[in-house]
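Dear Dr. H.,

I hope your travels went smoothly. While you were away I took the liberty of generating a structure for the chain from your last submission, since the lab meeting agenda had it listed for discussion. I wanted you to have the full record in hand beforehand rather than looking at slides cold. The sequence, exactly as received, is reproduced here:
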Amino acid sequence: MFPAEFDYERAASVGEALDAINEHADADVEILAGGHSLVPAMKTEGRSPDVVVDLDVPALDAINALSDRTVVGALTTYATIADSKAVRANAPLLAETAAEVGDLQIRNRGTIGGNLAEAHPGADLPAAVLASDAIVLLRHRDGKREVPATDFFRGDGETAVERDELLTGVRIPHTDDAGVAYAKKTHPATGYAMVGVAAVVEVDDGDGAAERTVSGARVAATGAVDRAVRLPSVEDALAGEPLEEGTIEAAAGEAQADIEAEKLRSDAYASGEFRAELLSTYTARALESAAERVADDPPTA
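The corresponding predicted structure, in token form, is as follows:
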């Protein structure tokens, strides 16, 4: 199928993109940043923007690793993130999750900014940025705005980005000495997550491995409801407890506590009830892998 007619603007800088957005303030404007969500939606789902602003901004295709944080530009592809030594070393959860997105073609063209702005309820990266405690970076004509990932996702296709703003990047605090993991049940038709769980587990070493306790945890899920969400009951069940099998089992048992049953997603492949069961299972898998990685790489003083 062919999309409806639209006006096309190509922006070579953030300023040009913002000017185009402002110029068409009364129109339905969509940002093209990879196109793997927008173009299919325009062809088959009746999405018909008046104007498409195509981002051709080299400055947004960059990864900057600083001493305590890494900034990933909005036009950085999944493949670049997954292959980046800097991201794998400093924000390994994001790298691992990016490697799970779609297939090779999608990873080579799709971008982190497009993924987050699209806010598909089964997208992988929203869970990773939530569990990473990331900050989403926005620009408008009068300045900048920073939005914590916990406040960014508001529903299926809904985010904190205002009409006059452009998502320019993501800032991720470094997860030194933490165990991280992403576990996903892939939707067989779309490649999205039927349910995916991202976990970051931090520990106090005590006087030896046998006495390790969880000093902090961040756990986020995608696919279960209309947006990616943190799982605070799981996090609370881990905090202060010994890093052992019983703790992980008990924490995973809390995975459904923060999810209202009537908000669970259902489709032809999985009922809400089945997704709830998957949530518990994949929370356990993510936590087990994260715990193993803490054990393989003990914290340093």
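Two observations you may find useful: The radius of gyration is 20 Å. The longest helix spans residues 272-296.

With kind regards,
E. W.
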